[in-house]
Design goal:
By secondary structure, this protein is of the alpha+beta class. Helices cover 43% and strands 17% of the residues. Strands 6-5-4-3-9-8-7 form a seven-stranded antiparallel beta sheet, sandwiched between helices. The chain has a two-stranded antiparallel sheet with strand order 1-2. The radius of gyration is 22 Å and the shape is elongated.
């Protein structure tokens, strides 16, 4: 098993499921296996909630460190469970499991490594709970699907990030989001037939103009190449939505409230991103960032000449972004 890339929800969830399945079998042999199994199993719920909440500005800065810590710790669990070169499949009996637990790496048996992981995983889970509690106190009622408010702080962050590009400080670009990406026809008036491409990273680059690059996170397991989307006025559209509201999109009950962005550019296709924050960039900042770039006509005009922060809420609303003056519902 390998945990690759930065897609928090996708990779952490897969890791957790695989680890739980494997550790269930270990649990029949050793108490340590049972304890680690239950610890990993208890991660799924809080981690899912944290990843969803971290899409929003009020929660992103608070939750991303503990989410990153949990991902790192789950990766350590994966490393313990990985087969050695001389091992074939899972053990099939008690003697086989005992041998598996006594197998050594860097001078430590698997059993010793499992014992070392237990407090680390417990501390990571504790940090996740602390982050969720802090969000609950600072932004009561916040949900990933809560109505959006126009946030001057998010607009300031987006403005300053574009300035970093203009000043030449981000020559390698900047990761601005991650998540599952789906591709469909470019005309939204026709019935949609969506194809899931898999987890990807969205990176903003500034070279002969701004462009958005969609890159697969697990490159050895996908059959699509990176996608470049130029960002120009009149040729780039971004829509905020929920996955369940996208025509033709298959959506399980647990995914109905997933915050998503529908992207249209100068192609014959459109793209739907199941949004995950990346690099402490929340959804509010993400959408303001791309729309400011679009207002600058992809960098052909200077930011200071194109974007008036005092009037940008009106521009966003005219572009179809709805804001609520209410507190979180």
């Amino acid at each position: 098993m390998m945990l690759a890339g930065a897609s928090i929800a996708v990779n952490a969830a897969v890791t957790t499921r695989k680890a739980v399945s494997f550790l269930k079998e270990v649990a029949h042999i050793e108490d340590e296996g049972y304890f680690l199994w239950k610890l990993v199993d208890s991660v799924s719920g809080p981690l899912e909630v944290a990843v969803q909440l971290a899409t929003r500005y009020e929660a992103c800065q608070i939750l991303e460190p503990s989410i990153a810590l949990m991902r790192f710790t789950l990766r350590q669990v994966e490393l313990v469970l990985e087969r050695d070169d001389d091992e074939q499949g899972r053990p099939e009996d008690k003697a086989g499991w005992s041998t598996w637990l006594l197998s050594k790496t860097d001078g430590l048996t698997r059993k010793q490594r499992i014992l070392e992981l237990q407090p680390k995983l417990a501390h990571a889970l504790q940090a996740l709970h602390a982050g969720l509690t802090t969000v609950m106190l600072r932004a009561p009622g916040l949900r990933a699907s809560s109505p959006f408010r126009y946030l001057d702080a998010a607009a300031d962050d987006a403005y300053k990030l574009i300035q970093e590009f203009e000043f030449g400080r981000l020559l390698d670009g900047r990761a601005v989001a991650a998540g599952k990406i789906h591709v469909g026809p470019g005309d939204d008036s026709n019935p949609q037939v969506w194809q899931e491409l898999g987890p990807c990273e969205l990176r903003l680059l500034f070279y002969n103009g701004f462009s958005l690059h969609l890159r697969p996170l697990v490159s050895d397991q996908v059959d699509w190449d990176p996608i470049k989307l130029p960002i120009h006025s009149g040729a780039f559209q971004l829509r905020r939505t929920l996955k369940t509201k996208v025509p033709g999109m298959d959506c399980s009950p647990q995914d109905e409230q997933v915050l998503s962005y529908w992207i249209f550019a100068q192609t014959q296709k459109s793209y739907l991103l199941e949004f995950e924050s990346m690099g402490r960039l929340a959804a509010e900042t993400f959408e303001l960032l791309l729309m400011m770039v679009e207002k600058c006509n992809g960098g052909e005009q200077l930011l200071a000449e194109s974007v008036d922060l005092d009037a940008f809420q009106l521009y966003m609303e005219r572009a179809g972004f709805k804001y609520s003056g209410d507190e979180f519902l």
